[in-house]
Amino acid sequence: MSGQGHARPVGRGRLMTAGAALATLLLGAAVALLELGLLSSREDLWRTRDDAPLIAALALALMAVPAAAFVHQVSRLAQATGERRLAALRLAGATAGQVRLIAARESGRHALAGALLGGAAALAFALVLGVSPWWTLVAPPVVVLGGVLSGLMAGRHVIASPLGVVRRARLRQPRALDLVLLLLGGGMITAGFVLKHWFITSVLVGVGAVVLVFGLTLAATWLIRASARRAGRRAGTAEALLAARLVEADPRAWARTLSVVGLTVFFGAGVTTQQTIVLLRDVSSSFEAGYRLVYLALLIALVTSAGALVVHQAEDLLDHRRSFAALSAAGAPGDALGRVLTRQALIAATPVCAVAAVAGVLVVVLPLVDVFPWTGLPLTLGLAGAMAGIGVLGASLVARLARPILARALHPGALHR
Amino acid sequence: MLEARALRKSFGRTTALEGVSLSIGEGEIVAITGPSGSGKSTLLHCLAGIIRPEAGEVTFGGRRVDSLDDAGRTRLRRESFGIVFQHGELVPELSAMENVALPLLFGGHAGQESLRSAMEALERLGVADCAERLPGELSGGQSQRVAVARALVAGPKVVFADEPTGALDSLAGELVMKELVRTAEAARMALVIVTHDNRVASYANREIVLRDGRVAG
């Protein structure tokens, strides 16, 4: 970020490259682990419970989502902050489509650099595991394609004309259809665990998890809007009112960013629940290595999600810099405006993390309801609550990290741009 | 009441203000005019305590404004000054009434009391029927009158208006100016208007002309 609240192109490029590298590494490592898991378990998957590599593969594949979300978030910010350059290109005769293609090519270039770095690391990981490294090469092209698509999609939010650039104001509100994917994904995962056939289960859980990720994003829009409306009705201070109304006006943007936090909490709650069951039932297993990998993946996901949240906050402040600068000039204390950011994060993150934690527990407990050790329920719920707490705490800490960006947005100069 | 002495302010190598001195009395309406880049907005920002001058001093009611820390100047702006911007700068996600209530809420007033005062301010400005609407649903003139209501709601002693009609057509601009001047006169507030529009300047009791950062007349 420069002194005027705009991200520098070099910094944005590096962020995108780093995000793409991480996404490629996670995806490539997931493919390698999946290969290892399929080689080692096959038909014995449910009998011997030697499915640690599969659990870790699923976790890593899902954790590639936060990294991808991070890349997309940076891509959106890059386009929003490159306003003058986009306008200059239009003035020089470029069509709107050409401007979008230029943006897509730029994000594709950064994604390619990151994919090569991450791909090399994934290749090394596969060699260390002793599996064929060729399947990991699937990851780099997927990430590069994602980078190009992200550049094209991010361009939809910025309308560049020769006279200047405006950010697209159309905000999408939730629809009833948004809940279908959530139910479908949850149903597929549950069915997969109930059927207990190695191939069908792998397909159902894998596809179900992807559907669930999208469903979680869409359903989170509903949750966040409801939470914001409730907070708005109860608001007694300026910062509470501002935070609630800002979140209520654009719940989709918060849902997009927080769904990866929700996913981390969902997976964390699910895994801790499963681990609790294994411990209480005293089942000997080779799960430990898998758990360690899963927790590592969750930690990486949480940190990556935090990065995506910071970038989201920066984009949000970019949208509201004039309003915030005007409020500051009119006497709104900087501290109070900083608290608006924290409250926004709390309003949006609390319901998403709470529901994700409960869903994570249910996905594991429901298929095992006949053998679940009910004496362990308080411990299970406590751990799920802790996972939700980590998610909410992470989101509010990120909001505090974004305060320096706010301080720059409050500069009186923002009123003249 | 509000006084500036030998103000100097520069941005990089560009000198925005050089040796500017002026005095504004209670209930006085002053227009600061001059060509683009003459330092009008910078002077308004210095007078309102939004930015600090590099040299010189600003006093309000005998108190130095420029030597106050950031929190002190913020409190002063909230309690004693009202500011109207060229484009209104309302928060798009808040209703007109909530926008007007914001300065009171930031000042620690209770929610219901703030909303009631905001409604009264909107009534005074003739836009009470817009209270529940979002800024995006208002015309330019309505939006600017809501912005004026926000600047006046806390009962300031000085109202600063930076090109208050710059984004409006002449009819809407005239309406906004009439309401602004009428309300300021009724409450004996000083009004400092930055403008390059002679019609707007004609509402003032006195005109200060800036050129290249200096008072030219």
TrEMBL record, chain A:
Keywords: Membrane, Transmembrane, Transmembrane helix. The lineage of its organism: Bacteria, Bacillati, Actinomycetota, Actinomycetes, Streptosporangiales. The keyword Transport does not apply. It comes from the Bacteria. The chain crosses the membrane at residues 15-34, 54-75, 110-128, 134-155, 176-195, 201-224, 253-273, 293-312, 345-369, 381-402. The keyword Nucleus does not apply. This is Uncharacterized protein.
From TrEMBL, chain B:
CDD domains: ABC_MJ0796_LolCDE_FtsE (cd03255). Keywords: ATP-binding, Nucleotide-binding, Transport. One of its GO terms (cellular component) is plasma membrane. The keyword Heme does not apply. InterPro entries: AAA+_ATPase, ABC_transporter-like_ATP-bd, ABC_transporter-like_CS, ABC_transpr_LolD-like, MacB-like_ATP-bd, P-loop_NTPase. One of its GO terms (molecular function) is transmembrane transporter activity. It comes from the Bacteria. PROSITE patterns: ABC_TRANSPORTER_1 (PS00211), ABC_TRANSPORTER_2 (PS50893). Residues 2-216 form the ABC transporter domain. This is Putative ABC transport system ATP-binding protein. It comes from Nonomuraea dietziae.
